[in-house]
Structure formats: structure tokens, C-alpha cells
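Work Package 4 report. The design task specified in the project plan requires that, given a folded chain encoded as C-alpha cells, an amino acid be chosen for each position. We show below one input record used in the internal validation round.
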């Protein structure tokens, strides 16, 4: 059991995480944006191209993990918080790229846990953007690796189907309310 009040919304690229988290923020919940997108946006602001930022994919994934760790270390564990991706996402991405996880990153993964993890099922329509350049095959493979990573970490993800944002929101809020009782 975790001793924080943190929840993760995760899934492959373009599954509706950001849209769902935006709705939760509108309802007044504390929401933490995706660390990878933050790292990308900061690089772009400094004049780097996306290909330069991700030229060394292993280094990029490790930088994202360190960023996530710093974000979590600065958060109040008692405050109900939704994270756009959790630490175990790094495990899934490292496995996808067939990278060895260095001991420091592995320790971060093992010491990080969440009250519940919501794994969004892929959407019927896939839409790329400036930071999300992967394809639908990548999305499905990462989805399966995320399920495995969180399950192996003892945080059995709750699968949230592609049923529209309002219905997805109901599932998540019902789970949160059942946890608080």
C-alpha cells in the first residue's frame, strides 16, 4: 500500500491523457503535466529541434525519469494529485527501445508508487502532433508494456476503455471516491 494520495493516468501516445487531465483540472483537482512533454517543450524553447532533443533516446528517457523524480519529491504526498504518467512509464519505454535500465533509474522506479493507476485504452483515431510522432503500432506496444510495468510493480492498473471523455472521467472519479471511503 502506498502512503501518498497520488494517482496516475497513463497510456500510449494519443490516448486522451492530456484531455482527461485537463477536465480533472477544471474540476479543481491538482494535475501534474507529462514530464517528457515538459522536457521537449523546454528544448524547443531553447532552439533545439525535436530530433536533436531525442537524438539519444536512452539519455532522453533517463532525463524524463529524473525529472519525474524531482517533480514527485516536490509534491505533498497527502494532497490528491493526478500525474500525467508515472515513474513506471520509464520502464515501459526503456523496454520498448530495448535499453538496459541503469541501477539509479531502477531504484527510482522501485521506490515510487501510486494509490491507483489508470491505463487508458487506445482511441480509435490516432493523432500525431509536434511532440507525439509515434504511430499506432507503437501506441499498442507501449500500452502492453505499460500494463506489464505497473503490474510488475504491484500497482495493477485500472483499464479505462475508449468510451468518451465524460464516461472515462466518471470511471476515474468513481474509483477515487471508492478509495477515499
Amino acid at each position: 500500500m502506498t502512503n501518498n494520495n497520488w494517482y496516475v493516468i497513463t497510456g500510449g501516445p494519443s490516448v486522451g491523457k492530456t484531455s482527461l487531465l485537463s477536465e480533472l483540472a477544471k474540476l479543481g483537482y491538482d494535475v501534474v503535466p507529462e514530464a517528457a512533454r515538459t522536457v521537449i517543450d523546454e528544448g524547443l524553447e531553447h532552439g533545439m529541434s525535436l530530433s536533436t532533443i531525442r537524438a539519444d533516446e536512452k539519455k532522453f528517457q533517463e532525463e524524463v525519469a529524473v525529472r519525474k523524480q524531482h517533480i514527485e519529491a516536490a509534491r505533498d504526498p497527502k494532497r490528491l494529485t493526478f500525474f500525467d504518467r508515472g515513474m513506471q512509464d520509464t520502464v515501459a519505454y526503456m523496454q520498448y527501445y530495448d535499453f538496459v535500465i541503469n541501477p539509479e533509474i531502477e531504484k527510482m522506479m522501485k521506490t515510487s508508487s501510486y494509490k491507483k493507476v489508470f491505463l487508458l485504452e487506445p482511441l480509435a483515431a490516432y493523432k500525431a502532433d509536434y511532440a507525439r510522432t509515434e504511430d499506432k503500432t507503437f501506441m499498442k506496444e507501449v500500452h502492453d508494456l505499460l500494463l506489464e510495468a505497473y503490474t510488475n510493480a504491484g500497482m495493477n492498473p485500472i483499464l479505462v476503455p475508449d468510451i468518451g471523455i465524460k464516461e472515462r472521467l466518471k470511471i476515474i472519479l468513481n474509483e477515487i471516491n471508492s478509495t477515499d471511503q
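Helices lie at 17-26, 35-45, 50-53, 57-73, 88-96, 103-110, 136-152, 165-180. Validation will be extended to a larger panel in the next phase.
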